[in-house]
Amino acid sequence: MMRVEEIETLPRAGLESIQLKRLQALVHRVYDKVAPYRAKMDEAGVRPGDIRSLADLRRLPFTTKDDLRDNYPFGLFTVPMDDVVRVHASSGTTGKPTVVGYTAADISMWADVMARALAMAGVTRGDMVHNAYGYGLFTGGLGAHYGIERLGATVIPVSGGNTKRQITIMRDFGSTVLLATPSYALNLADAMADVGVLPEELKLRVGIHGAEPWSENMREEVERKLGIRAVDIYGLSEVIGPGVAMECLETDHGMHILEDHFLPEIVDPETFEPLPPGEPGELVFTTLTKEAFPLIRYRTKDLSRLIAEPCPCGRTLIRMEKVTGRTDDMLIIRGVNVFPSQVEHVLMGIEGVEPHYQIEVNREGNLDTMSVLVEVSERIFSDEVRQLEALTRRIQAEIKDLLGVTCAVRLVEPRTIKRSEGKAQRVIDNRRI
Ligand code: DLL
């Protein structure tokens, strides 16, 4: 067994030879054990023995959410159910949940990668970790929990919700690290202001936020309101849960992918051709070491790009840029492609606008309409009507400039938009198409 420091700083050739060995073993195993994988590989005319280099990865067929749905709930598991010690599920946007399974070895590997991720943010055994990711079928709570314990830090398994109690616990227990979705972190910050608890009264040092997209401006907001360093963590249930990629403290640009376990690719979202580092596209992962529910070339629908430049922290693990959106949360408004993250970008560039917004899409007759509900600060809201109108027009104009879409903008009072305890709901699409 190699030490973590060694694995994370291996020269590329060393890392790639580990990846290739693991990939070859994986492809043999799924071909032998899982009929749907065998069928897809046969159809693509590729045999396990054909994978002689990492470049041969592109010969393997993709796996998609549809494959998971077709084999719901356990059809893609490669081990007998007796060996599965845990399942998690994520609610899809349509219909059935996505179900994932873990052997005891998978749970242990997950604890390892999650502990490594936490260490990238400087978390150590001495930390008191406030884990506000939801416990349950969602992978956030339990996934982070086992990693915190593996690292030897103290975990406070508070889960989501009961926000006032969370603040008391953070203050009284001396939480030093906050794990929460970025929207819930802001929710906590606002609630602190409400009950008059100052960031200085807490010992919080760093926040580890993920499970939903968030902009650089939102990062600044979280850092300012909580007085912490806020870093990004990425993961998805299908691949393992949280702990697929993580920002280190040396850079605020890009998350290191735990590449010895999760092999990344970026593909063109339309042609599905693999793209070189630096090019934006859809993230695809192959799990190299998972037993119960391995995935080959799983299309995440998340948009990002790979960063191959060396990181000042010394890790040689490739990085992925902050996720900028999903191929499937792209709204098409009167033929124009709109990503919620672009709307967020506009809003966060405007003074006095809070990072709480909601996009509503309707269809009137045959025409799509988009309205954006925007919370503004107390100070702005008490301004004269004329000034509010000017702000509304400015937001409209900037959205029109960037996206080419005319939308209605409604400024609302602070705390009007429903706060999330987990992932924020940014889009309400009322069109029945
Ligand atoms: O959200 C796992 C997780 C828990 C990650 C806690 C980080 C922290 P799912 O519920 O399966 O798993 O949702 C996965 O959420 O495909 C992305 O679209 C989105 N997502 C996750 N992390 C980030 C992030 C967990 N840091 C889906 N930035 C993924 C942007 C993210 N989007």
Q: Could you characterize what this model shows?
A:
The chain has 433 residues and is of the alpha/beta class. It folds into two domains: 1-327, 3-Layer(aba) Sandwich (Rossmann fold); 331-432, GMP Synthetase, Chain A, domain 3 (2-Layer Sandwich), CATH 3.30.300. Helix content is 33%, strand content 24%. The chain contains twelve helices and 22 strands. The chain has helices at 4-8, 12-33, 35-44, 65-70, 104-120, 139-151, 163-173, 182-195, 216-226, 340-348, 378-381, 385-403; strands spanning 86-90, 98-102, 128-131, 154-156, 177-179, 206-210, 229-236, 241-246, 255-257, 262-267, 274-275, 281-287, 298-304, 306-307, 319-320, 325-326, 331-333, 336-338, 353-364, 367-376, 408-412, 427-429. Strands 4-3-5-6-7-8-9-15-14 form a nine-stranded mixed sheet. Strands 11-10-12-13-16 form a five-stranded antiparallel sheet. It has a four-stranded mixed sheet with strand order 21-20-19-22. The longest helix has 22 residues, at 12-33. The chain is globular and about 70 Å long. It starts with a helix and ends with a strand. Bound molecules: 5'-O-[hydroxy(phenylacetyl)phosphoryl]adenosine (DLL). Residues 90, 133, 138-140, 210-213, 232-237, 241-242, 300, 302, 323, 326 line the site of 5'-O-[hydroxy(phenylacetyl)phosphoryl]adenosine.
